[in-house]
Every structure is written in C-alpha cells, then in structure tokens.
C-alpha cells in the first residue's frame, strides 16, 4: 500500500514536471510577430511591415492576402525577404495596398521560411477615398471625380459640401472613374468633395473657389451698355465694378457669392 501511494506521488510529480517543461515550449511556438505602420487606409496606401522573432538567415515572403486563403496568389502584392542577424524583418519592407473593396477582412502575411506550415498574419482594413482632377477653379467649372475602396458594385453618392451632385456605381473592385459635375454657385474659399456608399463616407477632398466675372458683350463702342455678372465672391458683400480705374457702380452679392 505504501509503495503504491509512493509510485502515485512520483507519477504525479513526473507529469507535473513534464507539463512545466511543455508550457514554455508551447509559448515559444508562434513567437514570430509582424506589425504595420498603419492598420487601415485606402487603396494606394504604402505600409511599412515590421517583424520580430524570426530565424537569422531564413528567406521567405511578406504579402497582402486579398482572398483570405492564406496562400500567395498572382496579383497579391508580395516582397521577398531574408532575415538578418537579430531575427527581425529587414528595414524598409513595404507593400502598396491594391485596388480592392472595403468591407472584407484583409491580412498582411509573412511566410518565413517560405513554405513553413505556420504563417504570421495581421489584419488591415481598407477604407474609401475620392480624388478630383483639379483642386481649384471657378463656379461653372467641370470637375472629374474618381474613387476607390468603396463597396463592390455599390452606388456611391458624390457630395459638394453637403449637396448631392450625382451618383456613380463602383466596379467589382470597389472603384469608379469618370464622374463629372459642374461646380454650383458657391462662395470663394474652400469647399469639399466626398463620396458615400451605403453607410460609409470617404474623407473629404478640398476644392478652392476663386472669384470670376463675365461681361456681355466683350467689345463695342463708347456709350454701349455692358452687363457684368460675377460668381465666387464672399457672401452678401459689396462689389465695386470699375472700368479701367473708374468706378462705375457697386452691387451686393447674394448668399451664394454671386451677382448679375
């Protein structure tokens, strides 16, 4: 009986010892870590990938996983790396986020050494953006807007300040091009352009309006009557109309900064 109890105690001690040895070994597995300079952004964002815990001299790849299959596929941005002394990713590992729609879980992955059974991944969230072909101009100008990072095959509403100026449907990559609108009557200074799909707005893009006048006719004789119109001035302000250096009249703009 005493021997049996002794052997049970010894067996328990051995099992406990093995567990204590195994726990640190388990924690050591998967010690490789990668991190990103930014965790979200629109297509075209350049991210810097850092990492630690790798084995000196190992070679492999870091890539942006589009389809979530944990395997590199043609079309997914990828760079090859060799781990220097110290076990960290080499400096300057960068990836450019491709044109893909938002609303999907993407990951940046490291497979080092190449073909290893365990890959290291960290998530990246794609966000929308819009761009305009010009950043300044006049009331009446035609502006072209492009966008990316929206939902795929979705209707995007384009806003000038808070007013909708039209819609455009994205392609399967969440992008669109070729949307145009005419700058409506608005005051001089900074205005904004943005897009919105079902729920999410893009960051705004600034468009600066400058004052402009037009005259009719543009030529004639002394004594002819000339009509002057203006847009893009300050709201409800007094405008002086001059011919050369001679003041002809003054007129007030409307709340949109225009007069006629």
Q: Care to give the gist of this entry?
A:
The protein is mainly beta.
Average pLDDT over all residues: 88
Note the main sheet.
5 strands, mixed
- Unreliable stretches (pLDDT < 50, length at least 5) are 1-30
Order of helices and strands: HEEEEEEEEEEEEEEEEEEEE
Structural class, please?
mainly beta
Trace the largest sheet across and list its strands. 2-8-7-4-5
Number of helices: 1
Distance between the termini: 112 Å
Assembly state of the chains shown? single chain
User: In which range does the helix fraction lie?
Assistant: 10-25%
DSSP summary, beta strand count:
20
Which band does the percent of strand residues land in? 35-45%
| Structural shape | elongated
Rounded to an integer in angstroms, the radius of gyration calculated over CA atoms is: 32 Å
Task: Please tell me about this protein's structure.
The protein is mainly beta and 260 residues long. Helix content is 10%, strand content 42%. It has one helix at 2-28, and strands at 33-36, 40-41, 46-52, 59-65, 78-82, 94-96, 106-111, 120-126, 129-132, 136-137, 142-148, 155-160, 163-169, 176-182, 189-196, 205-209, 212-216, 227-231, 238-243, 246-252. It has a five-stranded mixed β-sheet with strand order 2-8-7-4-5, with no helix packed on it. It is elongated. The model is unreliable at 1-30 (pLDDT under 50).
């Amino acid at each position: 009986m005493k021997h049996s109890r002794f052997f049970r105690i010894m067996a328990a001690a051995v099992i406990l010892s093995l567990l204590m040895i195994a726990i640190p070994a388990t924690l050591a597995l998967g010690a490789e870590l990668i991190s990103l300079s930014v965790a979200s952004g629109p297509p075209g964002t350049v991210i810097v990938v850092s990492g630690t815990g790798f084995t000196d001299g190992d070679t492999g790849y870091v890539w942006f996983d589009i389809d979530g299959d944990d395997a590199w596929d043609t079309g997914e941005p990828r760079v090859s790396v060799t781990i220097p002394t110290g076990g960290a990713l080499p400096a300057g590992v960068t990836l450019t986020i491709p044109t893909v729609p938002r609303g999907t879980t993407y990951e940046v992955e490291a497979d080092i050494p190449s073909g290893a059974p365990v890959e290291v991944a960290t998530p990246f969230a794609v966000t929308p953006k819009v761009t305009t072909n010009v950043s300044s101009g006049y009331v009446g100008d035609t502006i072209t807007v492009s966008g990316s990072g929206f939902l795929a095959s979705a209707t995007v509403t384009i806003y000038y300040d808070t007013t909708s100026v039209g819609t455009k449907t994205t392609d399967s990559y969440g992008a669109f091009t070729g949307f145009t609108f005419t700058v409506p009557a608005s005051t001089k200074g900074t205005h904004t352009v943005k897009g919105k799909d079902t729920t999410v707005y893009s960051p705004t893009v600034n468009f600066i309006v400058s004052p402009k006048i037009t005259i009719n006719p543009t030529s004639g004789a002394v004594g002819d009557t000339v009509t002057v119109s203006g847009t893009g001035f300050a709201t409800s302000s007094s405008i002086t109309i001059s011919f050369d250096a001679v003041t002809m009249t003054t007129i007030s703009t409307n709340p949109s900064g225009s007069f006629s």
